[in-house]
Amino acid sequence: xxxxxxxxxxxxxxxxxxxxxxxxxxxxxxxxxxxxxxxxxxxxxxxxxxxxxxxxxxxxxxxxxxxxxxxxxxxxxxxxxxxxxxxxxxxxxxxxxxxxxxxxxxxxxxxxxxxxxxxxxxxxxxxxxxxxxxxxxxxxxxxxxxxxxxxxxxxxxxxxxxxxxxxxxxxxxxxxxxxxxxxxxxxxxxxxxxxxxxxxxxxxxxxxxxxxxxxxxxxxxxxxxxxxxxxxxxxxxxxxxxxxxxxxxxxxxxxxxxxxxxxxxxxxxxxxxxxxxxxxxxxxxxxxxxxxxxxxxxxxxxxxxxxxxxxxxxxxx
Amino acid sequence: xxxxxxxxxxxxxxxxxxxxxxxxxxxxxxxxxxxxxxxxxxxxxxxxxxxxxxxxxxxxxxxxxxxxxxxxxxxxxxxxxxxxxxxxxxxxxxxxxxxxxxxxxxxxxxxxxxxxxxxxxxxxxxxxxxxxxxxxxxxxxxxxxxxxxxxxxxxxxxxxxxxxxxxxxxxxxxxxxxxxxxxxxxxxxxxxxxxxxxxxxxxxxxxxxxxxxxxxxxxxxxxxxxxxxxxxxxxxxxxxxxxxxxxxxxxxxxxxxxxxxxxxxxxxxxxxxxxxxxxxxxxxxxxxxxxxxxxxxxxxxxxxxxxxxxxxxxxxxxxxxxxxxxxxxxxxxxxxxxxxxxxxxxxxxxxxxxxxxxxxxxxxxxxxxxxxxxxxxxxxxxxxxxxxxxxxxxxxxxxxxxxxxxxxxxxxxxxxxxxxxxxxxxxxxxxxxxxxxxxxxxxxxxxxxxxxxxxxxxxxxxxxxxxxxxxxxxxxxx
Lengths: 317, 478
Description:
The structure holds 2 protein chains of 2 kinds. Chain A is mostly helical. Chain A has helices at residues 7-37, 49-55, 60-66, 70-79, 87-100, 107-120, 125-128, 134-155, 160-185, 198-207, 211-217, 223-233, 241-258, 263-279, 288-314. The longest helix of chain B is centred in the first third of the chain and has 25 residues, at 84-108. Classes of the chains: A mainly alpha, B alpha+beta. Chain B: Residues 79-455 form the Circularly permuted ATP-grasp type domain. Chain B: Pfam families: CP_ATPgrasp_2.
């Protein structure tokens, strides 16, 4: 039987997962920074800056002003209605997309998003973030997002909906990985031969769920180049750039195979060039300048791919 | 254990209790309730509310600062029970009524024999705002105009059933009938089995089969879709629920396009022809080229495709003429005219405000009348004579005199009561019943159940959810 899906619904599923992945990544970064902020021995020159720079619209000056105000940051990131990227607003947007594609997502997934929505809108949430319960809230939200991913994997049928959702999730994850990596390489001028210790990179790796795998995979010397290898080129790391691009390729393959639209092949080739750029980059001999270029070019091209992908499959208005 | 026998209204019919005590049909339920303490009954009520909230069976109320607040439609955990004999009367009565109403719609949009024979005045039909000239002469599949109907029933002082109104356009609430049962299964798992309650769960399958049978194209798997106004519609949950239960796409107007008098949906792999549309959109919004030109909810060209017979619409366009409250008074005559039978279910006596004698009669006895707009719904624009202030009654008279065709009046009937759990106690509240009938090529099917709506305010007779009403699970017992 030939599969098909409404363009609007496919769009909804794509954005549902982009928003949920963004929420997941942001909460992981917040949790990491929050917990490490208790440890005064940690090299804390970055603090909440990567989180605030990538996930919010705050200006450079505003970030400088609030970066040590944990109470403000917790509320701003989690439940501030004025912050368009707060967890609360992202969950609202995810739920709206879930509502619009409710006949294509499972009951279990819908109920989970819905209960998360009600939790985020509970009037007592801001008060809980003021005291010692704040960590509990952050941990609970982290677990809710993990559970979302579990429910998504276990209950959702494979097919077009799965492919669109997964591509949304993976584009978002790849952009997060690139941006967070940039946030830690910019302060050291992309110095691949520098001597930053593992404590410097710990915050990045924990934000990307890649700390344990890094420790298991690499020797304890010269981290600056190894980190690049891990977060960009490691096929076994679920948040690495190459891993996410590889999976996008797989799901794109499914969509193009089923599509009767001639432009689908053009898009497929466009993505192939993007992926090849990473696959055929020699990271062992990469220069500082090349690293900066690889990250920036990949980000730009991936954003362009996302736009073209939407135009091709979701142009229903 | 709680005190369970409330004070009965001597003028009304209570479904659980008679003057001699509990009715047989409710004996087991009452026994179960008596064995529960008030706290555990309250816990079950809270559990039910949480289940509704978590499943998103809610509607949104917007406050002044545009902050949406999610609310559930109140659900009372104590079921309403209808015996097999009572249901048999309801079932045969509704089947008879729908048969006549379908014949009327086929007639009124074609030969109009019923008007020529003087059974229904031509002016009544012509003045009905929901009589759609644009679909006059259209042939609908199997001559069925009403595929799904919600017939509102009430019970009089002796328990006799009356039809209060027919809903033949986009009757809503069926998801509540199905979800109420699911909730009851969770909070009273034993009670359903011991009471031998008929299942309602096959409703989506029956309906889906009817939808498929209406396809104009002779293909093995016709494309059937559910057309919704969108996520902000108050019945959106129901639309998603039914689409999911039937496994059909839930589309909005912007997902559809008409090309060469065929309707297509925009999919990720291109346009795909649509054969049957179960639309939850009123006639006025279906096609901006024919009806409201500013409607963005509909599909330009849809009525043209419908006229060409390339797509089936469920329910058919123009059904509003048959559920107009002024036309309602003629349904018993339709039954006699088309079927040569006596109506099994009675109508509530209805006075046409266009008729001067009837109008004077009503004006003289306004306190005992309910005034309704002929094309109103949801309890809006209704005046309950016994609750209205003198000023409201005067305003009502003025409105009637300005446009008498727009109003009918009915004597206030004390709806039957069923005990509800309110503030931890059993209290009597008035109810109605909306069974859902499905008409297909093989006849009319009615799943044994329905939506019982409850007026939760003490003494109120207004059960509409838009006016603060709630609902109950409805059991038809074997």
